[in-house]
């Protein structure tokens, strides 16, 4: 038979540096704030249309929809700060 030396795959381990983590967190901040801004703009400029579409699925008064949306926006903003901005600032302070 013979001796087989088969390598199914090789992996290169990439080192996760503080700079890479900072870069990832920076892009997470940009993308999350972009999503939040998109949401806010939809609620400002297309409020009635958003309500009409959502009222097809859930029959709630417009005031309750506003409370739900603006509460969810505030919660999303809080999550951005806690999970993206604070770690980013901490890594900026620590440096390399």
Determine the strand fraction and express it as a percent band.
under 5%
**Total individual domains:** 1
Low-confidence runs of at least 5 consecutive residues: none
| Total number of strands | 0
Question: What is the residue-averaged pLDDT?
Answer: 90
Oligomer: single chain
Count of helical stretches? 3
Tell me the Rg in angstroms: 23 Å
By secondary-structure content and strand pairing, the structural class works out as: mainly alpha
Largest sheet: none
Structural description of this entry:
By secondary structure, this protein is mostly helical. The chain has one domain (18-94). Helices cover 75% and strands 0% of the residues. It has three helices and no strands. The N and C termini lie far apart (54 Å). 2% of the residues are buried. The model has no long low-confidence stretch (mean pLDDT 90).
Chain-wise SSE layout:
Blueprint: H1 18-45, H2 47-57, H3 62-94
List keywords for this structure.
mainly alpha, single chain, 96 residues
How would you briefly describe this protein structure?
The protein is an all-alpha fold. It is built from 3 helices and no strands.
């Amino acid at each position: 038979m013979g001796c087989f030396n088969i390598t199914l795959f090789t992996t290169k381990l990439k080192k996760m540096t503080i700079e890479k983590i900072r870069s990832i967190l920076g892009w997470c901040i940009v993308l999350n704030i972009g999503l939040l801004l998109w949401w806010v703009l939809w609620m400002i400029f297309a409020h009635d249309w958003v309500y009409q579409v959502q009222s097809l699925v859930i029959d709630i008064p417009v005031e309750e929809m506003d409370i739900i949306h603006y509460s969810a926006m505030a919660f999303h903003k809080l999550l951005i700060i806690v999970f993206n901005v604070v770690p980013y600032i901490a890594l900026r302070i620590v440096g390399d």
